[in-house]
Structure formats: C-alpha cells, structure tokens
Design brief:
single chain
Amino acid sequence: MVRCLNICYQQVNTTALKTKIQIPQDILSTIDFANTTNGGMSEPVLGISKGEEGYEVRIKAAGLTADSFQIDVLDNRLWVYHLVMLFAERADGMDNLQSARTLGNLFLSNDVNVENIGARYDDETRELRINLPYNQAKRNFRRHIDIEKW
C-alpha cells in the first residue's frame, strides 16, 4: 500500500509540473511575470516642472541607460517605458519575449506642441529629460463667437 502511494504521488507531481511549464505565451506577456521572476524592480522617480518655454519631465530609473528608454505619444498621452526580457534564452529560431514596463503615462494638455517634443539623457545625473514645448497658437487663445439667428 505504501509503495502504491509513492508511485501515485510521483505521477501526480510530474503531471502538475508539466502543466505549470506549459503557460500560454499570451498570458505571459500580460502578467507581471518579469517583476516576479527577477526578484522585483525599483520604482522610477518622476518629476514635472513648468517653465517659460514649456513643461519638463524628468525620469530617473535605476539600472536603465539612454538606450533602454522608449517614448511614445498616443493620442493625448505621453507614454514612457522600457522593455524587459521575459526569458534569458529561447530555443533557436524563437525571438525573446519582451514586456513593456511603464515608467510614466502622462496626460498631455492642449497647450503642448506634440510635434516638437524632445528628449535627452544626462549621463552625469543618469536622468531622462523630456521637453514638452508650449503650442503658442493654443496658449492664451481667446475668441468670441457670434450666434446666428434664423
């Protein structure tokens, strides 16, 4: 009886391990898998200031270099992120899976000129600086609209 229990227990554990290894790829890309397997990540420091020429966003994130940062404008939002590898190695012919880790997702007000947004990385302070210039055409814009009578 004891021998049967050991064999049955080994078969159950082997089956359980196989199902845990076969996690669908689409699920891995949406969960916070990288943070769990890599032992966690430090939070970035983000600051926004308003100046004469526009807004300035400063982001400092531990372990990231200038090439690590990615910046996209999506409609009226500024998305700052970096890509995290999910696996160290994959089989030949398979691309490494990456997951985007958001560092900042900021609303862009109407007075920002999205066409002239610029960014630079300061090696000395290890800080990303994003310049959001004012859109002078929309800044302090005022117009009176007459109402037509029919």
